[in-house]
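Can anyone check this?
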Amino acid sequence: MADILILAIETATGCGSVSLTTGNINNGTVLAEYTLQPDTTHSRRLLGSIEAMMAAAGTDWKDLDAVAVSQGPGSFTGLRIGMAAAKGIAMAAEVPLVGVHTLDGLAAQVTAIDMPVCCLLDARKQQVYAAFYRYFDDFNCQRTSEVLVLSPEELVKRIDEPTLVAGPGIKACQSLLATHQQVRLLPAGYLHPRAALIGFCGAKLLGDGAALEIGSDLVPFYVRASEAELNLR
């Protein structure tokens, strides 16, 4: 799997990115990565960014072996845009499509450490998306909790041992985390979701047999109900 070429799309937050990678996080290479915090929605820039990146890298659609997409949680609109683009490209290129949980891609950026890690994204509405991980000597991490959506107060109650907290969601609950005796904080700007890590994680899932064929029912992983669903209920 070291030479598998993956186009990855990450639109779970306002800071979207696309990338071309080969291999997984242990043996892989980032061939190209384009990141942008646009004033306009991802829908107006995403496909143009992909085309520009592939042209700069000298890569053609026929060279792709798979497409990976950040599946969520995150911005509902951003996830739908990224998923639609990923499905369209995978279908046109006739390659497998694989979804990667956004927080798993975020956690993959943390170097192996001998304590639990909690990765956070801002869920708005005074909540955060959170997941807990353990790291191993081979730099691989394993999620040890479900992906959660909870208030900052609920989050700090779950931290009962020394824990490294990382991710842009720190900003939503920094005051509580900063005074918690068991919390070790990474600066909020240190990590953000990256398409390259979605690509690396996607390669691992492909190697584990998790590829989805074209036309599969892959959908965004929202974690909580949308406003439309809540209003309908």
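Reply from J.R.: I decoded it. The domain at 111-185 is CATH 3.30.420.40 (Nucleotidyltransferase; domain 5).
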